[in-house]
Design a protein that fits this description.
The chain has 91 residues and is mainly alpha-helical. 45% of the residues lie in helices and 7% in strands. It has one domain (2-88). A hairpin with a 2-residue loop joins strand 1 (49-51) and strand 2. The longest helix is centred in the C-terminal third of the chain and has 17 residues, at 72-88.
């Protein structure tokens, strides 16, 4: 929803400049594969990706990461950053 709204109101450049922009798509992949990054074809083109001191690299592919890398606390932090961005841009 945030991506579509950003397109509609012309704030795509602001959306793309957010520190979590490239990190967000990697999270469902990480959680769906037992806390391992299984890189998709497009992923190596954007790596390394960092958010709040957590970096993902191609070397991490198929390596199990501890839940402390991205667990419930980090998921909530990420959600609130996206929610705050949405609120500040009028979504």
């Amino acid at each position: 929803m945030t991506r579509e709204h950003s397109k509609a109101v012309g704030t795509n450049s602001v959306f793309h400049s957010q520190p979590w922009y490239h990190f967000v798509p990697l999270i469902p992949n990480y959680m769906a594969h037992n806390y391992q990054f299984v890189l998709l074809l497009r992923d190596p083109q954007i790596l390394p990706v960092s958010w709040k001191g957590r970096s993902t690299t191609a070397a991490m592919s198929k390596q199990e990461m501890p839940l402390t890398f991205f667990g419930w606390v980090q998921a909530w932090e990420l959600f609130t950053e996206i929610r705050d961005f949405a609120a500040s841009t009028g979504i």
